[in-house]
Input
Amino acid sequence: MKIGILGSGVIGLTTALELQKEYPNASISIVADKFYKDTVSYVAAGIFRPGTAFAGPTEEITKKWVKDAFEHWDDIRKTAEASKAGITELSGYIFSSISESITRNPLIEDVLPVYRRATEDELKICPGGWKYGSFFSTLVTECGLYLPWATQKFLNAGGMVFNKKVNTFGDIYGDHDIVINCTGMSAKELCNDRKLVPVRGQILKVDAPWLKMAYYADYDTYIVPGFSAVTMGGCRNFESWDMNVSRHDTAAIKERCEALVPGLKTAPLKEIRVGLRPHRDPCRVETEFIDIPNRGIMRVVHQYGHGGYGVTCAPGTAKYAVKLVRDVWTGYSKL
Output
């Protein structure tokens, strides 16, 4: 069996590794025109914390994606490869003065090892006079480390990578028995999918190795320690295609994050990153048989539209996509 994966971000690479486990004798290729630092995965803070609005086709499937994803990341964390893969434990707080519901998350409260209401003393840890809060223990996957680690693991197992821009599915017709579409925002044109919209994000990377906890607060404020820097965010500009750094967003992020953790005022700025989250409701993981005019039918498994939760949910949707590949191949083999 020849399988082609379109896209080399966290979704594509994680799916490639899952396919190699399921089909060790298959010929598996990644086809992409953007790699590593040019992917939106590289911009992500990488904390395992899906938004409460993240959704698959059903509530049951969504929860399975989230649970499977956490167990997958946690299994890697327990290995000797964890630091090379960029995966580690991280605990944090989420505070709000608006509503207690903002500090709750039904998708992960039964999945994470700890998710509880913050005590009165804990609400005073950060300035702001917070009314509501939760404490949670989770994981962080830093794609600056994970992407090269996963790529090397894929290549070592016999995988192939091709640098090619795919404008239409016809461009690769006949190259693979099955194609998995993990193209993120590029799927908007590739699939003519009007439901897929960009949600622009901007983050600051600062040097603050003393910070060991994550903090979330109102107005999309978050501070997430990683292996090489602390991520300060953020913003969500719906249907914005602007990849330029905004000085206004930079100022707003600094103001909110430094108010939450005043020690960050002296943290040296290392980098500013911008990315477009591929948002779709629901996240699309499904099979499609595409008619290529005058040529034939292509078997495609779509897997895109994770929004800002691609790193969080990649293993869960990847395992689901691999099952769809199995169903497609089983049906094809019987023809």
Notes: Helices lie at 10-22, 59-77, 82-85, 143-156, 187-190, 247-260, 310-333. The longest strand covers residues 269-292. The chain has a mean pLDDT of 97.
